[in-house]
């Protein structure tokens, strides 16, 4: 079970972090090897512990990958997030462009990808709403005409 550190923040072992995010321990270890996730604390015995923000980053990585974002672009998202947020996950108001170690070209590519994902999401949301309206009308009409038969 996750344990609080001395500051009261919940810390997760690799296995606990994986369980909370719904992935395998190996996935967490792979992302750690790629330096997409970094432990918040390493115990004297070498055990890696991750805080709540690591869980948020891991979930974001999983979502971005599920949306079709390549790993190198997902890495850029993590780099951008780390540069603009503190360890608790709060947006830093004092960040500057030089805090982000990505070229303008990488940032532009990332913005292009995000716009593409957003456009795709909007199209799918429209399609799902249209299908829901059709199904609602279909079943209301059937309920009015006669009971639905199996």
Q: Would you give an account of this structure?
A:
This protein is mainly α. It has a domain at 3-102: Multidrug-efflux Transporter Regulator, Chain: A, Domain 2 (Orthogonal Bundle), CATH 1.10.1660.10. 59% of the residues lie in helices and 5% in strands. It is built from five helices and four strands; from the N terminus they run ββααββααα. It has helices at residues 14-21, 25-33, 52-66, 71-84, 104-145; strands at residues 3-4, 10-11, 41-42, 48-49. It has a two-stranded antiparallel ribbon. A hairpin with a 5-residue loop joins strand 1 (3-4) and strand 2 (10-11). Helix 1 crosses helix 2 (25-33) and helix 3 packs antiparallel against helix 4. The protein is extended. The termini are far apart. The model has no long low-confidence stretch (mean pLDDT 88).
Q: What layout of secondary structure does this protein have?
A:
Elements: E1 3-4, E2 10-11, H1 14-21, H2 25-33, E3 41-42, E4 48-49, H3 52-66, H4 71-84, H5 104-145
Antiparallel strand pairs: 1-2, 3-4
Helix pairs in contact: 1-2, 3-4
Structural class: mainly alpha
Specify the CATH architecture of the domain at 3-102. Answer: Orthogonal Bundle
Radius of gyration from the CA trace? 21 Å
Q: Per CATH, what is the topology of the domain at 3-102?
A: Multidrug-efflux Transporter Regulator, Chain: A, Domain 2
Strand content: 5-15%
How would you describe the oligomerization state of the chains in this entry?
A: single chain
Helical residue percent band: 55-70%
End-to-end Cα distance, whole Å, is: 47 Å
> What is the tally of beta strands?
4
């Amino acid at each position: 079970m996750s344990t609080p550190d001395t500051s009261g923040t919940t810390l997760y072992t690799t296995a606990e972090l994986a369980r909370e995010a719904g992935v395998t321990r190996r996935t967490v270890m792979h992302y750690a090897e790629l330096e997409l996730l970094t432990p918040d604390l390493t115990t004297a015995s070498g055990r890696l512990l991750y805080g709540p923000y690591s869980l948020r980053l891991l979930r974001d990585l999983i979502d971005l990958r599920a949306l079709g974002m390549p790993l190198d672009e997902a890495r850029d998202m993590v780099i951008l997030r780390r540069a603009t947020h503190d360890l608790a996950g709060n947006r830093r108001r004092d960040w500057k462009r030089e805090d982000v170690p990505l070229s303008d070209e990488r940032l532009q590519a990332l913005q292009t990808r995000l716009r593409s994902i957003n456009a795709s999401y909007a199209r799918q949301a429209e399609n799902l709403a249209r299908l829901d309206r059709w199904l609602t009308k279909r079943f209301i009409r059937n309920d009015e005409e006669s009971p639905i038969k199996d």
